[in-house]
Amino acid sequence: MHRNLDTIAAIATAPGRGGVGIVRVSGPHAAEVARCCLGRLPSPRQALYGPFMDAQGEVIDDGIALYFPGPHSYTGEDVLELQGHGGPVVMDLLLGACLAMGCRMARAGEFTERAFLNDRMDLTQAEAVADLIDAGSAAAVRSARRSLDGGFSRQVNLILSALTELRVFVEADLDFSEEELDLLAEGDIQYRIESLLDQLATLTEQARQGNLLREGAHLVIAGRPNAGKSSLLNRLVDREAAIVTAVPGTTRDVLREHLSLDGLPLHLVDTAGLRQSDDPVEQEGIRRAWAEIERADLVLLVVDATQGEGEEEKEIRRRLPPRLPVITVYNKLDQLTQLPADASDVLFISARTGEGISTLREALKAQLHYNGHPEGLFTARRRHLDALARTRDHVQAANDQLIITRATELIAEELRLAQETLGEITGRVSADDLLGEIFSAFCIGK
Ligand SMILES: Nc1nc2c(ncn2[C@@H]2O[C@H](COP(=O)(O)OP(=O)(O)O)[C@@H](O)[C@H]2O)c(=O)[nH]1
Ligand SMILES: [Mg+2]
């Protein structure tokens, strides 16, 4: 266990003016700070109303103090909360008084970091605290709450114990037999590995959805000039965000809009039409369009249905990053008298009349594998997805060893690596730099 000898303090409420503002203190000197500031130590977990004084005994403010002796506190240490009037100057004076009494300013996320280090929560829960604070929708709040309640950790721990059992099994075999597995054990191990792979796949899909809900998807609208990209953006966000004209090359800057698709945050990007151009401004617009495409999760390739696909579209498709999903939409459906015969896997829409837009929205959800049911999800991060993928690779490698070499030692090693990798998610095994990275993204006072 880590020992934090510093007592830390910070303003826990948002900066600015408010009815109430809170200064939070955590660490071994919290009780001393309470006595100095309040004249006495409040009874544990009971509100004490009174004046707040600075180190010289001068009254700064009055309000309610709460004292939570460790380990039954947020951080696991002794915690003091001073709830005063929420003015920035009052709060600064109060914080200043705490610092004068021997506290140090807390770093961003340090309270939650201490909660983690004192085993009050694991890493997914600590991250869920930040996600809850940053949540941009009710669905995101619910999924962060679920992670905070340990929903994600429980699933990870289940797989971790399955891995432990399997490792015990394999390593026992390593002790008793020669270098190769006997057939009976092999069947059992094979079965267990397959079931592990299944569990990992299920959890990965849940985490992917959770991450999608947290981060949203980057959707780039691309195509040649005048196909109706900006009109489509406007239609999707239901307002005149982008300038639409009949002049090809109207859009030059990259335009960003946000949209919630049944709870799924979409970051829409409208771009300059892709074509050869001698105009340096347009060229820069096109360069930026390609830069956006490189970063996209999904591209909407807009084609003018009255003209169909030509050399330009071929050229665009050639340049699209491999493996980037693309939805092709034929726009200006209102101008068509009949549908082209060779266009079965494209969507027909009219940005002008709105026809086909609801189908497009469904196609977007399907392409992003968003099931539209945020209930039951927990928030997850790329870090988690990455760890899950590497865990799967190790389990898969163990499986391959089982089939190809049947070398117990190699199987055991892959399973050990799998367990270590999966443990990164909850923080059972984690490097200090990883912790620093996670907690520094928090706000001060949390
Ligand atoms: N008839 C029809 N015209 C459209 C439609 N969508 C866009 N346009 C027109 O096509 C022209 C180019 O549209 P714009 O959205 O600026 O295309 P962009 O260059 O791809 O962004 C404008 O004159 C639009 O009014 C549509 O669905 N039907
Ligand atoms: Mg445009």
Automatic annotation (TrEMBL):
The keyword Metal-binding applies. GO terms for cellular component: cytosol. Its cofactor is K(+). The keyword Hydrolase applies. It holds the Pfam family MMR_HSR1. SUPFAM superfamilies: P-loop containing nucleoside triphosphate hydrolases (SSF52540). Residues 216-369 form the TrmE-type G domain. InterPro entries: G_TrmE, GTP-bd, GTP-bd_TrmE_N, GTPase_MnmE, MnmE_dom2, MnmE_helical, P-loop_NTPase, Small_GTP-bd. Binds 1 potassium ion per subunit. (6S)-5-formyl-5,6,7,8-tetrahydrofolate binds at residues 24, 81, 120, 446. Mg(2+) binds at residues 230, 251. GO terms for biological process: tRNA methylation; tRNA wobble uridine modification. It is found in: Cytoplasm. K(+) binds at residues 226, 245, 247, 250. Its EC number is 3.6.-.-. Keywords: Cytoplasm, GTP-binding, Hydrolase, Magnesium, Metal-binding, Nucleotide-binding, Potassium, tRNA processing. GTP binds at residues 226-231, 245-251, 270-273, 350-352. One of its GO terms (molecular function) is metal ion binding. PANTHER family: TRNA MODIFICATION GTPASE GTPBP3, TRNA MODIFICATION GTPASE GTPBP3, MITOCHONDRIAL. Exhibits a very high intrinsic GTPase hydrolysis rate. Involved in the addition of a carboxymethylaminomethyl (cmnm) group at the wobble position (U34) of certain tRNAs, forming tRNA-cmnm(5)s(2)U34. Homodimer. Heterotetramer of two MnmE and two MnmG subunits. Belongs to the TRAFAC class TrmE-Era-EngA-EngB-Septin-like GTPase superfamily. TrmE GTPase family. This is tRNA modification GTPase MnmE. It comes from Ectothiorhodospira magna. The lineage of its organism: Bacteria, Pseudomonadati, Pseudomonadota, Gammaproteobacteria, Chromatiales. The gene is mnmE.
